[in-house]
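User: Second chain of the day. Same drill as before.
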Amino acid sequence: MGTSKRQLKAMLRKNWLLKIRHPFITAAEILLPTIVMLLLIGIRTRVDTQIHPAQAYIREGMFVEIGKGISPNFQQVLESLLANREYIAFAPDTPETRQMINLISIKFPLLQLVSKIYQDELELETYIQSDLYGTCDFKDCPNPKIKGAVVFHHQGPQLFDYSIRLNHTWAFSGFPDVSTIMDTNGPYLNDLELGVNIIPTMQYSYSGFLTLQQVLDSFIIFAAQQTETDSATGNIEPQTLQSFGTASSLELPWTQFSPSKIRIAPFPTREYTDDEFQSIIKSVMGILYLLGFLYPISRLISYTVFEKEQKIREGLYMMGLKDGIFHLSWFITYAFQLVEMDLQYGA
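Assistant: Same format as last time:
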């Protein structure tokens, strides 16, 4: 242990002598990183920061009402599907699913022409992933293009659980292409910045997702209302969706249970500070650090290569120097030099 300490002390002294014997090189090693840091400090002091207050986004012009204006109504969705020969898929294939489609078709007859029922979710996924997907686009095509899918996990009478799954190429300029979301040169670059861009937020409305959800929820509310009515009249038998097709159950049209004036707005954001320094310097930060520390690192490599080339290292090994002590001495030398610069920069 004592031998290693003496060797390390001797090697550090040797490195120190090399440094002071080349004052211009040593000064350049210290000044270049310092100049880069001072340059960054100068840019930082000249760039202002902007404090953005909390935004509730609950104000005029920030709402999109479902089924109106830029948000398509269900009839428009069906007409677009029919024009493009695309389908809405439903799963699983149960009497409840078929009865629901029949009842909704009373108000929207086009649904019968653009809907396709699959045995279960697995069959739907298998078809979409198969080579047969979308191989024909004519009427009554067995392999249509699926633009949206409604998958029921539970179908009443007390509990309804379903999922809406949309193709990202959905009509009405729907969800973004997933290959461009994280593209720093793509159309969704602003989504990566601070704050809220309401356009991606509204895509649930533009795409027809909320329109389809509104129609399904309207039917579910109707089914729940019918169940409560039967319970109030003493009918203790749980009513299924199949029984809703009777004339008595349709005395009140199911569309009267449609939720109205549903609007979408972005979630509020907290107060945040927008630092323009980051956006200005992010493209050149790597190059600046590279230029600042390239020369010191190159000098470190030069020292070690020179000592090996001149057989200095082999001579030291012959005198009993341990290989680990040699490398540790240069590591400590440059670690001390860089830490000293960091302390000066921090001060």
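The longest helix spans residues 285-309.

User: Great, on to the next one.
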